[in-house]
Write a structure and sequence with these properties.
single chain; 143 residues; five-stranded antiparallel β-sheet
Length: 143
């Protein structure tokens, strides 16, 4: 897998990924992961979920995610639109929410914790060391 440098607004991510699109989607996931609760709360309508995501994206992200294999800020970076990525992420989270409800796991989160989560840090210390020694990283870096 290639090493990608992704940035959008004040968010940056360095990650090993199979494609630039995958790296861009992971940046969106990391940026929006604090809002997963809206998919776990059955009282929030799908329209309100979408409106919430759009508002958060407008406040915290730029219109495109720039992804490069050379580093942050390079001219050859691929630009991927945030609205398209946000719509894909919303559809994925909506599908997961429906699946979790359908199989009776309401109230329990089956979604992975974000990279920066303190519980995830303690569980993945050894894998992070391995990633760092091999030159891979999956950490979000605010600018």
């Amino acid at each position: 897998m290639a090493k990608f440098y992704a940035s959008c607004g004040s968010q940056t991510l360095i990650i090993s990924a199979p494609t630039a699109e995958f790296a861009a989607m992971r940046l969106i996931y990391e940026a929006m992961s604090a809002h997963i609760w809206i998919y776990e709360d059955g009282t929030v309508s799908e329209k309100n979920r979408w409106d919430h995501l759009v508002l958060e994206a407008l406040l915290h992200l730029s219109p495109t995610v720039c992804v490069s294999e050379r580093g942050l800020g390079h001219n050859e970076a691929t630009e991927i639109g945030v609205p398209e990525l946000l719509l894909q992420w919303h559809r994925l989270m909506t599908g997961l929410s429906r699946m979790i409800s359908a199989i009776g796991f309401s109230g329990r989160s089956l979604l992975p914790k974000p990279i920066g989560d303190s519980d995830a840090k303690s569980q993945s210390t050894s894998s992070n060391r391995a990633d760092q020694s091999s030159g891979r990283s999956g950490r979000m870096h605010p600018r």
